[in-house]
UniProtKB/TrEMBL annotation:
PANTHER family: ALPHA 1,4-GLYCOSYLTRANSFERASE FAMILY PROTEIN (PTHR46781). InterPro entries: A1-4-GlycosylTfrase_dom (IPR007652), GlycoTrfase_DXD_sugar-bd_CS (IPR007577), Nucleotide-diphossugar_trans (IPR029044), Put_A1-4-GlycosylTfrase_plant (IPR044789). Residues 236-361 form the Alpha 1,4-glycosyltransferase domain. This is Alpha 1,4-glycosyltransferase domain-containing protein. It holds the Pfam family Gb3_synth.
Amino acid sequence: MPISQLSSSRANFAMNDESFPKFSTKTHVKSSHNSPKFTHLSPKTIRRVRQVIKPPSQEPLHEMRSFSRRVRRFFDENSCKFRVFMTWISSIKSFGDREKFTIESLFKFHPNACLIIVSNSMDSNRGSQILEPFVRLNFKVMAVSPDFKFIFKNTMAAIWYQQLEKGNVKPGEISLGQNLSNLLRLSLLYKYGGVYMDTDFIVIKRLDTLRNVIGAQTVDPKTKNWSRLNNALMIFDKKHPLLIKFIVEFALTFDGNKWGHNGPYLVSRVVERVTNSSTKGGASKFTVLPPSAFYVVEWGKVGDLFRKPMDELHQKWLDDKIDQIERDSYAIHLWNRQSREIKVEDGSIIRHLMKKACVFCNVSRTIS
């Protein structure tokens, strides 16, 4: 995929809708891939799987409330035209200032957005307390526990999930919650359409000007083609055919032992196949955005965004980087795994962006 003009423009692709079959959990699915291999697991592993996929028993009220009903009511009552989804698979104690600032920056540039956080831990009294400052300002946000069967219904995700429940899918060494989040984001966008974004972004520009986009994480320096995509921020129409391709790929090639296999590597594999195909006509378009759109720095260099200038030369680099970000970027991925413990220093790029993206601007906080 040529991206010679990545710094300022987009690479567009088209796909044929007719090449995407509809799936039912009651039908046999043919695919160019080998069928998924399901293996019966030990009782201990099955218990570990069920601890992840079942809602927490200490929240019986929320267990009884329908995901579909709550989401439908939320969208209808708020006349939601700009829908945003996040997932949170960790404990509520881990939902800190950085995650809250992601929400803050989203609403700074999209005051009429409707945000749904799909999470067991956030769908609780403590979660409501965390979101209360946003609700008081009339921002539309709700946390809701996932109903996997409903969300995955009528896609290959439902078949995969049935096998997972039966203990016929090896969860692997990678967090099952992380892999369920990878599948949830695809299925939520397929069912509802809108934006999916991780909770470690700073939004710096309106996203509702974008449609059917996914971001490149890296580019080959020689060919100028993208070499890796990422699924941390995606924007797609409801039932976009590329999303069903992603879901099928997840179900048929799931591997719980390879980091990124069911996430960034998955979307990269599928888009590479799609763009290399010669199918044309009846097209559904999508766009691969350059790294500057969402992933302005690679994960190994994210610390550079948090540090204050050391001298005049460093100050010039920071100023130039800020100019580039404000010109070319829509949101900045903070790569939480690498930057979680890094402090935000005064005079840093992150501090500059926080001042422009804050809603509660007089509140003293850190996002480290």
